[in-house]
Automatic annotation (TrEMBL):
InterPro entries: FAD-bd, FAD/NAD-bd_sf. Keywords: FAD, Flavoprotein, Monooxygenase, Oxidoreductase. The keyword Flavoprotein applies. This is Putative monooxygenase. Residues 7-339 form the FAD-binding domain. GO terms for molecular function: FAD binding; monooxygenase activity. It comes from Hyaloscypha bicolor E. PANTHER family: FAD DEPENDENT OXIDOREDUCTASE DOMAIN-CONTAINING PROTEIN, MONOOXYGENASE ASQM-RELATED.
Length: 416
């Protein structure tokens, strides 16, 4: 592959930024086109855990693992699991740290999404991102097959793209080049609630949730809370309801009594402390419908274009794997492209051929990984919104804890 194929990445989320960083380390010229006008435009979401063999591995190859470890929060792994009636089924906050260690840190430390994005943004060469570039449409070049022309909402165009990477999320403008499949409503709506500076503003709420996350899963409903490194806390009061529920349930989401109405109508039989969590997370309220792509979505490889992350395999958050899978996508695609650029054999054939072979190899593994994780996520959705959801989650953690304690005891016995 020559040094100058024209690469365009659509979207400056974790997947697109990770890919860009990995490719720039191997001297690929590229441009990211991002619809938002600047990096400060909107809140980037809550907190997430990066897995050693997915998100952390991508950061390691990108030379950013130490920076991640500097900002990550191992204590954020702590889980508190509750039954709807307020009974505590599991609480890491009252135990010494016990989870497996990796890279000298806890296995899946949390990091705020905005912090992860800043680490990736700051690692890129100046001018890599063109902000305020909302993609309107893509057309394959009429004269040269496998090259693409992009049109943007500001009236500009970019011509002759050799590799177009759609990392543009749920409503990807690149996806229609590869498949007619579209996201569909997953049956769950989550009302997102924020408590800013929770320890100073509401010490009870901070203490109740603990250092990491608190979960209550029940038939057709859930309450989930996450600590953030910024000092804020996010809660999600989620319900299994039809797609039009937000508009037709009768709750005015901008009214002062929206939380009270939500609790009264959908969580009234819950424990008083759980209800208090929803009522006192009072700084922001945003209803969010959950969308997903079909499990096992696939397509025939098309030369010069591919997808990463949510654009390829949008999942609900009920297995906590979305960003990890997206960053694994970026790592795999970068590896395939670098392999074709640097091998002796690859240098003997055209850029378009090299890119097509790299994309085909990447998509074969990516689609397989996507199907496995989408199935896991669907299983999580069904489990979380079942009557035994909390017991199953607590039981899974208990099993892991028992295994770790058994290993520890065995090690100590050998040592003595």
């Amino acid at each position: 592959m020559s040094p100058h194929p024209k690469i365009a990445i659509i979207g400056a989320g974790p997947a697109g930024l990770t890919l860009a960083r990995l490719l720039q380390l191997h001297h690929f010229p590229l441009t990211i086109y991002e619809a938002e006008p600047s990096r400060q435009t909107r809140n980037q979401g809550g907190t997430l855990d990066l897995h050693p063999k997915a998100g952390q591995l991508a950061l390691k190859e990108a030379g950013l693992l130490s920076e991640f470890q500097k900002h990550s929060r191992p204590e954020g792994e702590a889980s508190k699991i509750m039954k709807y009636d307020g009974k505590v089924l599991w609480d890491d906050n009252v135990l010494p740290p016990w989870r497996p260690q990796a890279e000298g840190e806890q296995e899946r430390p949390e990091i705020d999404r905005v912090v992860l994005r800043d680490i990736l943004l700051d690692s890129l060469q100046p001018g890599t991102i063109q902000w305020g570039k909302k993609l309107l449409g893509v057309q394959e070049d009429e004269k040269i097959k496998g090259k693409y022309n992009l049109s943007f909402s500001d009236g500009s165009m970019e011509m002759g793209i050799d590799l177009l990477v759609g990392a543009d999320g749920a409503w990807s403008k690149v996806r229609p080049l590869l498949t007619t499949e579209k996201p569909f409503y997953a049956g769950i709506t989550a009302v997102e609630l924020w408590a800013l500076d929770v320890d100073k503003q509401n010490a009870w709420l901070g203490n109740f949730v603990g250092q990491g996350s608190m979960f209550m899963f029940d038939e057709g409903r859930a309450i989930m809370c996450q600590r953030q490194g910024s000092g804020a806390m996010r809660s999600y009061a989620a319900v299994k309801r039809p797609e039009n529920w937000v508009e037709e349930c009768g709750i005015n989401w901008e009214a002062p009594d929206a939380r009270e109405r939500l609790v009264k109508e959908y969580f009234d039989d819950c424990g008083e402390e759980l209800k208090r969590v929803v009522l006192e997370t009072k700084d922001v309220l945003i209803p969010r419908k959950c969308w997903m792509m079909p499990v096992g979505v696939s397509w025939k490889t098309r030369p010069g274009v591919t997808l990463l992350g949510d654009a390829a395999h949008l999942m609900t958050p009920f297995a906590g794997v979305g960003v990890n899978v997206a960053m694994a996508d970026a790592l795999d695609l970068a590896r395939e492209l670098v392999k074709r650029k640097e091998s002796v054999t690859a240098k003997l054939v055209s850029d378009s051929k090299n890119i097509a072979v790299a994309v085909e190899a990447y998509e074969k593994e990516m689609l397989k990984r996507a199907e496995e994780n989408a199935a896991k996520t669907m299983h999580g959705l069904k489990g979380h919104f079942s009557a035994t959801g909390s017991e199953e989650r607590a039981g899974k953690i208990q099993k892991g804890y028992n295994m770790m304690m058994a290993k520890k005891a065995e090690k100590e016995q050998r040592g003595s």
